[in-house]
């Protein structure tokens, strides 16, 4: 648990791994634990509200797909943990599954080690993705000082 | 994702809420008629059907559990501003209890009171109310136990300046009855032997 990214990053890590891996982990948890909803799962469009920096007034930037869920996962021994997820996709089922994984890991329930492995795998994939993107960004860097030297030549 | 979604309690499922909404439409169209809802308790079923993030709710009687509030995911509001107010009909309203009656231009902004009572249309009602008005052919007698008469008295005051007013939905464990603001309500003579 100690080498895991902060909980706020878990969802991003889960979404980086193959959906089939998430499915398998959720199946495993569902087989051994009781899942109860803590709220009615929602999926649909949400309005993204921002504050403009000049006068600090709020405005609505536009719509985005959003799904959210909150669950309690209870083991056969009666140990329970709460988890939740909010994801920018119109997929209620995905939000529910992320909430189940979140609860399992946050509550250090019996299957937390395999869920933690998913988080680490996702974090590694995201790090690699960041490395590739940084390389691409670096390759597009323009050295404007060369333009200055060209002007001097003219 | 292919796994089965977790099962919500029936009262929070859309199918059930559609049935409750149909029951509420009938109850509002025919004031005083007592209509069963598919899943008890009726009060929670009504709230699950009518209340969401776009509305506001006040729990004047402290009747709702934390879990119910979480599932409703609605805005908490004070009695005077809430679109829906849950009250305990067994207790009389306080002197300062003043739900929104709307405005002349926007009477639809008034409150709907969801009143918990012991039993609707019991064999021996403590109080019987005689109803007349739209949706009632001649008159209807509605027997209720567990409704303090002060609620009807105050409701009549709130509805005295039509179209301003409030609408009442009475709930017992399994059924609902509606008293829209257009209904005239007077006390009928109690049945002989009724307490």
Structure notes:
- The complex is a heterodimer of chains A (154) and B (195).
- Chain A is α+β, with helices and mostly antiparallel strands and 154 residues long.
- Chain A has 5 helices and 4 strands.
- In chain A, strands 1, 2, 3 and 4 form a 4-stranded antiparallel beta sheet that branches.
- In chain A, helix 1 (7-16) packs across helix 4 and helix 3 packs across helix 4.
- Chain A is extended.
- By secondary structure, chain B is an alpha/beta fold.
- The relative contact order of chain B is 0.19.
- Chain B has helices at residues 14-29, 42-50, 66-72, 149-158, and strands at 35-36, 56-59, 75-76, 84-88, 112-116, 119-120, 127-132, 140-145, 167-171, 175-179, 184-187.
- In chain B, 22% of the residues lie in helices and 24% in strands.
- In chain B, strands 1-10-9-5-4-2-3 form a 7-stranded mixed beta sheet. A 4-stranded antiparallel beta sheet of chain B has the order 6-8-7-11, with helices on one face.
- In chain B, helix 1 crosses helix 2.
- The A-B interface holds A 19, 22-23, 26-27, 30, 35-42, 70-71, 91-94, 96-97 and B 1-3, 5-6, 8, 12, 70-71, 73.
**DSSP strand (E) fraction of chain B?**
15-25%
How far apart the termini of chain A lie comes to 63 Å
Mean pLDDT rating of chain B: 91
**Which residues of chain A sit in consecutive blocks of at least 5 with pLDDT less than 50?**
none
Structural class of chain B: alpha/beta
Give the uncertain stretches of chain B in residue-range form: none
Helix content of chain B: 10-25%
Portion in beta strands of chain A: 25-35%
Largest interface: A-B, 22 and 10 residues
Q: What structural class is derived from the secondary structure elements of chain A?
A: alpha+beta
Rounded Rg of chain A: 22 Å
Order of helices and strands of chain A: HHEEEEHHH
- Label the overall shape of chain A: extended
Count the helices of chain A. How many? 5
- Strand tally of chain B is 11
Mean pLDDT value of chain A: 92
In DSSP terms, counting alpha (H) and pi (I) runs of 4 or more, how many helices of chain B? 4
